[in-house]
């Protein structure tokens, strides 16, 4: 396995801290880490609310990346509450495609960390905006 995937996994695991923030907000069940084209790693956690104001861990990490001046994603990993890794939801995929409409197909996504299964966003989202 490439070291960058190990670094991303550790970065996401370090911020994954499931907790009740308030009676209406639960955070940290899912954590994500993104490797930007600059080489920097950005993290985020999901924030679940009792209305539609919540955010997924991947989008939180993307917004963290944008806030800090990077615009291009190379790799993404998300650790679910059960400890397994998985694919971004449709909203997260949509944000990545809008952020990088000409090159989103090449973003690598770790589907299964233990089995080292990586796919591209292009494989998960082959027909964006048909």
Automatic annotation (TrEMBL):
Residues spanning the signal sequence: none
Keywords in UniProt for this one?
Answer: Hydrolase, Metal-binding, Zinc
One GO biological process from the UniProt record?
Answer: pyrimidine-containing compound metabolic process
Please provide, in alphabetical order, the Gene Ontology terms of the cellular component aspect for this entry. cytosol
Q: Which Pfam families match?
A: dCMP_cyt_deam_1
Domain called CMP/dCMP-type deaminase: residue spans: 1-130
**Which PROSITE patterns does its entry note?**
CYT_DCMP_DEAMINASES_1 (PS00903), CYT_DCMP_DEAMINASES_2 (PS51747)
Q: Which domain of life is it from?
A: Bacteria
Molecular function, one GO term: identical protein binding
| Protein family (similarity comment) | Belongs to the cytidine and deoxycytidylate deaminase family.
Report what the protein is called.
Cytidine deaminase
